[in-house]
Amino acid sequence: MHDILIRPLITEKMTNITAAQPGKFGFIVNLKANKIEIAKAIEKRFSVHVVDVKTIKHHGKTKTQFRKSGRFEGRTSKYKKAIVTLKEGETIELFEQV
Question: Which CATH number belongs to the domain containing residue 81 in this structure?
Fold first, then answer.
């Protein structure tokens, strides 16, 4: 089975969401993972109860680099993020340190 949780999503926007709505946390997850798998993985790893999972797929951006030998084009990696809502009063210890 593939690893579902890749890393926590710690950005300025996600920090503001967590501050305004306690109990919401963000993670970068595997592209093939569905909401049920994400919820089970978070419940198992952090011993919390997941109420809701919202997922967003981000497609890689096209990047161009100009060099002496010509123009190179490439893409950044695509990824999937999940915003998880926990049962009221529960929190994840990892995010309290940030």
Answer: 3.30.70.330
pTM exceeds 0.70, yes or no: yes
- Render pLDDT for 19-45 as a digit per residue (tens, 0 to 9): 899 899 999 999 999 999 999 999 999
Q: How many of the other CB atoms lie within 10 Å of CB of 2?
A: 8
Contact between residue 58 and residue 27 where contact means Cβ atoms under 8 Å apart: no
Q: How far apart are CA 22 and CA 59, in angstroms?
A: 28
Give 16's contacts (C-beta < 8 A, 6+ positions apart): none
Q: Looking at the domain assignment, is residue 95 inside a domain? A: no
82, two tokens = 């999940």
Q: What is the DSSP letter of 22?
A: T
Please answer whether residues 25 and 83 qualify as being in contact, where contact means their C-beta atoms are separated by less than 8 angstroms: yes
Compute the residue count for the chain.
98
